[in-house]
Amino acid sequence: MKAEKVLQRLESRKTALLLFPVLFLVLLIVVGVLLQQRIRTMFHTYVEQEVAMNVDMLANRLDARFGAELMGMENLIRVKGTDSWESLLSDNDVDGMGIKRMGVLAHRGRAIVGDSLKVSEWDGIRQSFQGYPAISYASGKGLLLTVPVFYGENIRYVLYRHYTERELAREFDIDCFDGAGRVMLVLSGGSVPMSSREWSEADRSYIDRMELGGILRQLRARLYSAPSAALYDQEENVVFMADLKRMDGQVIGFVPASALDGGLLAVTRLVIWVFSMLVLLFAISAAYLFTRERRVMEADQASQAKSAFLAHMSHEIRTPINAILGMNEMILRESREKDTRTYAHRAHEAGQTLLNLVNDILDLSKIEAGKMELALAEFRLADVLERVCTLVRLRAEKKGLDFHVMVDPELPAALYGDGARVQQIIVNLLTNAVKYTRKGSVSLTVLRAEPEEAPEGVIVPAGDVLLVARVEDTGIGIKPEDRKRLFGDFVRFDAQRNRNIEGTGLGLALTLRFARRMGGTITVESTYGEGSIFTAWIPLRVRSKETIGDFDAERVTESESVHTAPFVVPDAHILVVDDNEMNRFVAQSLLKETKAHVRLAASGRECIGRLRSEHYDVVLLDDMMPELSGTETLERIKNQHLADGTPIVALTANAITGAREEYLAAGFDDYLAKPIAPDALIKLLRRTIPETLQKTEEAQETKEAQKPEEPQETEGTAANTAEGQVEGAAPSEAAAAESVAVTEEAAVTAGAAEADGRAGASDMSTSAAPADEADADEAAPLLDTELGMSYAGGILELYQPMLQMFADLQPEKSKVIAAAYDAADWKTYAIDVHALKSNALSIGARSLSELAKTLELAAKAIGKEETTKEEKQEAEATIRGHHEELIEKYEAVAEEAKKLLAKNP
Ligand code: ADP
Q1: pTM, to two decimals
Q2: From the alpha carbon of 534, which atom of ligand 1 is closest?
Q3: What are 600-655's pLDDT values in tens digits?
Q4: What's the rounded Cα separation, in Å, for the pair 60 and 50?
Q5: Exposure pattern of 575-600 as b/e (b: 16+ CB <10 Å)?
Q6: From ligand 1's centre to the CA of 512, what distance in Å?
Q7: What percent of the chain has pLDDT over 90?
Q8: How far, in Å, from the CA of 432 to the mean position of ligand 1?
Q9: 720 within ligand 1 shell (Cβ under 6 A)
Q10: Residue 725 to residue 722: CA distance in whole angstroms
């Protein structure tokens, strides 16, 4: 089961591990492509801006050049005056076109100096006569720069400067981009006075194509808002355009992208390089993660295996230890031989220590395997503290230490959480305090703290109470350097000094883990040589407005300590009502040692009959009976006032959470879970039978008379027989009763054993408590004699007849169950299997009991009104699916019982 799960988990983790890199690679590629496109766009924008800027500069250069020419002409007039034109233009010569380079024109282009020019050919002449410097172009003739010559306010002449096209090309350099750019100057009429050196027809047709393709239109549009613009075309050229200011025209051209691509190439290379690095990095980290994950998985597997092994071993070890303890208990009970008793006593002590160690390891492995479930239920704080005090006071007193308890009366009376673990935490801290204190005192202070006072890491949910248990001692203390390691597994300090103090170094490790599991923590203050303060901080839900009030630790201990005395009530009359003969027999046998007068009734009707004529001091009334249930019987008794003043106790195998409260609410005076744990029974009688009938002193005397020299050992039932009697949410009474009988170390983990006991309603004794459910399934024997013996109070004389009875009754009971099954009478079936459930458990047939319980629940579900049709069908299917198995198992257990009886007549 477990191995399969682990394998499944590993498989799914492996798939996840493979899927992850593939997904990541795809993601990386998508990101890469997007990145590349983005970079490309960014780069294009950048290049276009650069080109536009360059072209703007070119246009400005041209403008500046023409501006300088015109200004030079104006200056010439100003410097030389307007009279001596000949001298002014003395250096003027004829250009290649046969036109004088410079000249002065009168109206209509008539030359004063130089050549006459046609006004119709040169637009600029007219403009200059209007008062403006101008530049005009005539195709094939070149460029003419003209400025007006003023005589006072009037313009009389126009000074001109002529450039042929060749001169233009020579003197006005419009090359750009290191000659790679093709550029031309286009005037508004479409004429092209200048172009770059390499300009060709092909370039012209390219520009025409661009015009058609719309790129030039786009560029022109851009020129509304900027002096220049550039755009990539389809053919990997960058086309550009810039406005000229002094002429009505533009600079237009293009430059192959390849001439600019040096940068792009570098960027692309950089991107590829970064990308490759990323992929490499990814590959390395994936490989690293993969190996690490594999290592983690392997470690996980190993740790799981270790935990499973530990849990299994602990279970396996516990069983024989319990057997040894049980046998030892028999020796203690039966032997009067002094030496034998002393040895047995020692064996008991050692066995208990071993058991506690195994329990600790089991707890630890459960925590490590993540299997430690908290058993959350309502609990009374006073009950927990009472048990804590009981467990610790005796030990403190034995060492001559004062034990003080202070409980804040304002604490809530009822809390919700894992009461047994809370108890275990406080007991562990107190036990350590007692262990590591030679003289002085140990004190426990229990109070509530405000959420703000919580230590780091402890969060108190709104409405919860932060319970603080402070354990203070005047012991050996802890060195500051040791404090950090205090909570480590198997950590112990001062080996030399503490060599006589038993311990494993697991107690605090577990205590802290329990506290953390509950959302709390443990803090420590200590002065080496003076003492320590261990504080447990535990947030718990509040279940009542009622407060705990004055807590009397003394009283509790005294009343508990009386429990060691045998309990005899020779004058008491007890009525046991149970339809199941085996249960009646068990109850009667267990009651034998009380010397009470015990009467038995097999039905509610018989019980009522007896109560009409007889007086009883207590009635133990089974609830689940055919015809009249216990609850119905009680109702009649109450209505008819048949037993006013007599405590009536519900007996039930429904040891589920809240059962006690339910029965008390129904009017019962008390509650006892079946199978009956001997100690729980005695405790119950102690509570319910009038004190006047209880012969404690007499009993004490008897006890003294029998007492050998080991005082604490005498009458206590072996710890394993009593632990973990479950009464729903109510913590184990048996565990409390056990406390006095157990030896020193036993007390430490009594809480742990109890917590184990709570794991399932049927998990009644340590001997049979499985390490976990899975273990129970695999290893559970048909008959766990340890468990059976524990229900028989460790008395073989009771266990044997129980087995006998179980075996004898089996054929008939099987028939009854089968008849109810055949008739599909689920109500009767539920009652029959319910009886089998408790009978089976009381002889130690746990798996049969559990199967019976499943079928009982299913049969009950069918009878319930609130069950839906589907649920009923499901329940019936469960019964039909397991009925045969139940009958077979029942037979098999009976056979086993017979075999056992034959072996040990
Ligand atoms: P154990 O008591 O079984 O050795 P614990 O885990 O309970 O293991 O405690 C670990 C160690 O911490 C003890 O061995 C002891 O040295 C030290 N220690 C615990 N509680 C106290 C205390 N109250 N005073 C002094 N030392 C303590």
Answers
A1: 0.41
A2: 23
A3: 999 999 999 999 988 999 999 998 888 889 999 999 999 999 988 899 999 876 55
A4: 15
A5: bbbbbbebbbbbbbbbbeebbbbbbb
A6: 13
A7: 23
A8: 6
A9: no
A10: 7
